[in-house]
Amino acid sequence: MFQEFKHYRERNWGDLEVRAGSLDGVVLTHAHLDHSGWVPRLVRTGFDGPIYCTEATADLLHILWMDAAHIQEEDAAYANRKGFARHFPALPLYDKKDAADALDRLRPVPWAIPHAIGGFKLSFHRVGHILGASCARLEDADTSVLFSGDVGRSTDLLMRPSGPPPAAEFVVLESTYGARSHSEEGLVARLAEVVRETVSRGGVLLIPAFAVGRSQAVLWALHRLQQDGEIPNVPLLLDSPMATNTTELYQEHARELRVPPSAIDGMCASVRDADRRARPPPPGAAGAEPRQHHPDRRLPGPRNARGPPARGRGDRAPSRA
Ligand SMILES: [Zn+2]
């Protein structure tokens, strides 16, 4: 799915060069919407074959595709109400029924076991990145191709580092960040410093974070800092139903992570506590205000602070990306 700039997003409305109904199947490396978000549109336009992915990716897609469809329905309804749509009536790229139809087509495949599809064998192999993320290897009698998907960092706080990739004759390699390199050195220590400074002046620290992958990494860092006594034991509020649901999936699939499942249970317990505190919120509490208003309301306060954005991509529908 195309995201961000409008001239890219408009391509989501274009047709494929082949008929959707003529495709035999779809292979997804992971759930982020920039990789998976157009599939319900493909189903809406006639695709009725199987969609292969890992089990955790399938679980994440139940959250992401339904949320994406909901946002598009809402945005189309809003444009029609306000009358600013270029096309009338404004339509969603796909709706919740299309998302549900796409979910019905998911065929989870176990890790690293070749799965026969027509004349091909498909296998998924770990690449870190986010829960369920894989590289996909396809082979037939003559050749083999490896699609990297998004490859995670070996130093990710939660995801296991990827092993050596399987051998293949051809590799199709993603390069989301091009030639940029990212240093995570000292980031957790810096986070601890900001938390301590903010708490010591009685403020609230807001950390904008994408819901899938980044929110869980930030929560894990904060949870560990509290366990180690590096930061005070203040409540951690996760104010996003999608991030909360995703965090619960991380708990369900904890064996996929590099940290022990019991530790993830501990992290999730503290998040659920915080979540209950936020919903239903006490009058005047942070959870009482719509999420997008948190920065406006909190950041002018001299005691409050905004944490470094926990960047990621691909977990919001394009209209809100
Ligand atoms: Zn991704």
Protein described:
The protein starts with 5 loop residues before the first helix and ends in a 15-residue tail after the last strand. The protein contains ten helices and ten strands. With 321 residues, the protein is of the alpha/beta class. A hairpin with a 4-residue loop joins strand 6 (134-139) and strand 7 (144-147). The model is unreliable at 278-290 (pLDDT under 50). Helix 4 (55-82) packs antiparallel against helix 5, helix 4 packs antiparallel against helix 8 (241-252) and helix 8 (241-252) packs antiparallel against helix 9. It folds into two domains: 6-172, Metallo-beta-lactamase, Chain A (4-Layer Sandwich); 187-320, Rossmann fold. 36% of the residues lie in helices and 11% in strands. The protein has helices at 6-9, 33-36, 39-44, 55-82, 96-104, 187-200, 214-227, 241-252, 261-278, 294-298; strands at residues 26-27, 51-53, 106-108, 115-117, 120-126, 134-139, 144-147, 170-172, 205-206, 305-306. The strands form three sheets. The chain has a five-stranded mixed β-sheet with strand order 4-5-6-7-8, with no helix packed on it. It has a three-stranded parallel β-sheet with strand order 1-2-3. The chain binds zinc ion (ZN). Zinc ion is lined by residues 30, 32, 35, 129, 150, 314.
